[in-house]
């Protein structure tokens, strides 16, 4: 796995390889199983969880409906507080703005707070191309960066790695990025944390520029909020002279009072904590306290297009807690990399095809990467009905229909690869609407049942490679009913 | 009380004994059941694959076939969930898109009268002890749509706990999906098989003689994997357990290594 999402294969193809990775499966099973149990306990403590969840969904929906208003209010508030606001229509523009801002400081290195938005834009690559080194300071992001790897989880990007793999990465790669790993490093959690602390501290104390994202941006005051566990965020947000925050436009909340809801929902859903250890909030700049220059880059990158879809837009409620990943049996088997995006798991399967558009076989395959078991919807703290959005997007893939691309309403054609399936579905729909034809089919199946192979040829092999076929009964239910009840069962018949 | 059986296309074609068991059970409890022959598939395979428009004739068909029934009972959690959760939405969308052949009111009314079998037994008939006898160890897998869309809760378990002779074995990780997911099973075969293998391992480790669900579609997948792996555990629908009595017992569990329909007696 190298550090790029370009040219990723479709989900089923990627999963074909990853499901065979025994170590990956074991790492994920252990990690997601542990956090699932902890989260259940943390959520059960609150007797008003269902109401908090409904409130969170309602605040997000209302804010998204009036996003134009709240974004302008946010810009005014941030500007008034001494910050500078930039608007980025897409990833390239966001990267261009950030690169320009860093170069203007004269610095050639930045420290980074864990940020999904900059993973989405591929900022580190863009900075590297301009000769700027970006240091990830979140422990898991550090592991991913040192390993030349990609994140595979929203909250725990290195969830696919176990302790001994992390020790090996620290030993072999830390020296290339700064302070080497201590001699005789073991794989005990305390030793690994200490090695990371020493490696990172040097960077915190030296860095003049920091790049972050934000969990929330409060429109009424222009306050940004970062919620974290390790304290690396607090270091980055307070020590450097210049702070640049790249924030998706859906992160805005109208008022401080709204934070009351989300600061209960988010920690319990993501890390299973009542309150996360560090919550940093800053409003513009303050003389003698923290960065002297603050830039806010507001990122669209497909969000406005997503907002135009009345069903799909509910995915924009997401507060990136990753509860849906932790309960997803598909994610647990396939791993995060198979989703080909920094947003893996169920939320990724609905976000990525909308943010990027149904651009390639990967995006087209993502809405199908679910059994629709509903565990994600049940776990979601802002009640995103992910299965409903998945089915909605499947319709866009197989039948085409209206979508919005860079602000323009357009109609996309059905995906070519589904042509055969479309014909089968049309035939099935006809047969189901003509029960007499269906009955003839059933009888044919029953009459030929001695001839059926135990394993299917062609596309049917995907079924019979791992499962025996059922025996075909000699008589369908309808034929049995007619034979024994004399066909009295037509609607309007006896009861 | 007019009760119509919505047998579902999977049961009609592959598991007719489940439909027969539902009839036996309901009639033993004094319910007259009829089977409107116009009924067909609920359309779930089409809908979940993205072919919403193709399901519209099936909504109309369902609402018409069961228009005179007070209750529509189906031995499938998944198909009941399709009707109850998705039919009203599909009909409303069709109307909003100008296709008025699907009458939202008729569809929504039919959806509201639809009950999964165990729901009907407990909520409408008010029985938990149906007088069943099943002298086997059984583990129960709550299928996803029954669990999360219908909210069946512990209804199936309560019924099983009252079956004479039945010993219920706990299934670890019971609420995790078996990996079937309709067309998911063929579109994402690697993940589906991995999930199914994990579920099959958990089922086999219970030492039960049978694994029971409210959905034969999940058992089609799980039973296929159990049979392929040579597991001694047999898949069985809850209707078949509840239909058996001491006087008229359920057929014995078939020998390991055979798939389930073999026990219906038809020569192969």
UniProtKB/TrEMBL annotation, chain A:
Residues in 4Fe-4S ferredoxin-type domain copies: 315-384
- Spell out the PROSITE patterns in the cross-references: 4FE4S_FER_1 (PS00198)
Q: Which domain of life is it from?
A: Bacteria
Q: Where is the composition biased (Gly residues)?
A: 486-495
Q: Where is the LUD domain?
A: 73-285
Coiled-coil blocks = none
Lactate utilization protein B C-terminal domain span: 393-483
Q: Name a GO molecular-function annotation.
A: 4 iron, 4 sulfur cluster binding
Keywords attached to this entry: 4Fe-4S, Electron transport, Iron, Iron-sulfur, Metal-binding, Repeat, Transport
Region feature (Disordered): 449-495
Q: Where is the composition biased (Basic and acidic residues)?
A: 464-485
Matching entries from Pfam families are given as: Fer4_8 (PF13183), LUD_dom (PF02589), LutB_C (PF11870)
Q: Name one GO biological process term.
A: lactate metabolic process
Q: Which PANTHER family does the UniProt record give? A: LACTATE UTILIZATION PROTEIN B
Q: What is this protein called?
A: Lactate utilization protein
Origin organism is Streptomyces klenkii
Species classification:
Bacteria, Bacillati, Actinomycetota, Actinomycetes, Kitasatosporales
UniProtKB/TrEMBL annotation, chain B:
- Residue ranges of every copy of the Cysteine-rich domain listed in the record: 3-83, 138-222
Bias (Low complexity) occurs at 256-268
Q: Which organism is it from?
A: Streptomyces klenkii
Quote a single Gene Ontology cellular component term.
cytosol
What InterPro entries does the entry give? Cys_rich_dom (IPR004017)
Pfam families attached to this UniProt entry:
CCG
Give the span(s) annotated as Disordered. 244-268
List, in alphabetical order, the Gene Ontology terms for molecular function in this entry.
Answer: oxidoreductase activity
**This protein's name:** (Fe-S)-binding protein
């Amino acid at each position: 796995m190298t550090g790029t999402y370009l040219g990723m294969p479709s989900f089923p193809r990627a999963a074909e390889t990853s499901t065979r990775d025994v170590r990956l499966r074991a790492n994920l099973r252990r990690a997601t199983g542990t956090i699932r149990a902890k989260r259940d306990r943390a959520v059960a403590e609150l007797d008003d969880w269902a109401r908090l969840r409904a409130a969170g969904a309602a605040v997000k929906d209302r804010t998204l409906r009036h996003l134009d208003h709240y974004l302008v209010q946010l810009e005014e508030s941030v500007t008034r507080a001494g910050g500078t606001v930039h608007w980025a229509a897409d990833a390239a523009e966001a990267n261009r703005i950030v690169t320009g801002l860093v170069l203007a400081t004269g610095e050639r290195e930045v420290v980074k707070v864990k940020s999904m938005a900059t993973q989405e834009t591929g900022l580190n690559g863009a900075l590297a191309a301009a000769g700027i080194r970006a240091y990830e300071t979140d422990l898991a992001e550090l592991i991913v960066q040192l390993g030349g790897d990609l994140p595979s989880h929203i909250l725990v990007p290195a969830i696919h790695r176990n302790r001994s793999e992390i020790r090996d990465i620290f030993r072999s790669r830390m020296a290339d990025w700064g302070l080497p790993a201590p001699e005789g490093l073991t794989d005990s959690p305390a030793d690994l944390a200490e090695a990371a602390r020493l490696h990172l501290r040097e960077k915190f104390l030296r860095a003049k520029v920091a790049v972050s994202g934000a969990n929330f941006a409060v429109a009424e005051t222009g306050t940004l909020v970062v919620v974290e566990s390790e304290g690396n965020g607090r270091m980055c947000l307070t020590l450097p002279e210049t702070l640049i925050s790249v924030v998706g436009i859906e992160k805005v909340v109208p008022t401080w009072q709204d934070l009351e809801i989300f600061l209960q929902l988010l920690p319990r859903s993501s890390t299973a904590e009542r309150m996360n250890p560090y919550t940093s909030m800053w409003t513009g700049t303050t003389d003698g306290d923290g960065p002297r220059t603050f830039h806010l880059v507001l990122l669209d990158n497909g969000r406005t297009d997503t907002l135009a879809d009345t069903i799909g837009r509910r995915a924009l409620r997401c507060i990136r807690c990753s509860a849906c990943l932790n309960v997803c049996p598909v994610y647990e088997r396939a791993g995060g990399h198979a989703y080909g995006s920094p947003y893996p798991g169920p939320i990724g399967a609905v976000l990525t095809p909308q943010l990027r558009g149904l651009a390639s076989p990967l995006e087209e395959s993502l809405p199908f990467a679910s059994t629709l078991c509903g565990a994600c919807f049940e776990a979601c703290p802002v009640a995103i009905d992910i299965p409903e959005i998945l089915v909605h997007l499947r319709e866009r893939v197989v039948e085409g229909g209206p979508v919005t691309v860079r602000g323009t309403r357009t109609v996309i054609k059905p995906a070519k690869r589904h042509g055969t399936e479309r014909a089968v579905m049309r035939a099935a729909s006809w047969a189901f609407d003509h029960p007499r034809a269906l009955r003839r089919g059933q009888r044919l199946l029953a009459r030929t049942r001695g001839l059926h192979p135990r394993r299917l040829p062609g596309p049917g092999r995907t079924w019979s490679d791992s499962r025996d076929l059922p025996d075909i009964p000699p008589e369908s239910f309808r034929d049995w009913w007619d034979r024994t009840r004399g066909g009295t069962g037509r609607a309007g018949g006896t009861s | 009380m007019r009760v119509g059986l919505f047998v579902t296309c999977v049961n009609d074609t592959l598991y007719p004994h489940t439909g027969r068991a539902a009839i036996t059970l309901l009639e033993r409890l004094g319910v007259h059941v009829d089977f409107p022959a116009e009924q067909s598939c609920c359309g779930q395979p089409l809908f979940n694959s993205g072919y919403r428009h193709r399901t519209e004739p099936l909504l109309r068909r369902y609402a018409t076939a069961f228009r005179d029934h007070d209750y529509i009972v189906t031995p499938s959690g998944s198909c009941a969930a399709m009707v109850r959760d998705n039919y009203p939405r599909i009909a409303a969308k069709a109307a909003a898109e100008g296709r008025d052949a699907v009458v939202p009111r008729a569809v929504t009314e039919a959806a509201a009268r639809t009950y999964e079998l165990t729901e009907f037994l407990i909520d409408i008939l008010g029985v938990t002890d149906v007088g069943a006898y099943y002298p086997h160890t059984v583990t129960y897998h709550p299928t996803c749509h029954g669990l999360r869309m219908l909210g069946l809760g512990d209804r199936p378990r309560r019924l099983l706990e009252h079956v004479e002779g039945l010993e219920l074995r706990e299934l670890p990780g019971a609420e995790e999906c078996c990996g079937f997911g309709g067309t998911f099973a063929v579109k994402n075969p690697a993940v589906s098989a991995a999930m199914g293998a994990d579920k099959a391992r958990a089922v086999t480790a219970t030492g039960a003689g049978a694994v029971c669900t409210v959905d034969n579609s999940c058992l089609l997948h799980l039973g296929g994997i159990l049979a392929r792996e040579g597991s001694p555990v047999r898949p069985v629908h809850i209707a078949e357990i509840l239909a058996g009595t001491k006087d008229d017992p359920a057929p014995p569990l078939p020998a390991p290594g055979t798939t389930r329909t073999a026990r219906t007696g038809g020569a192969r």
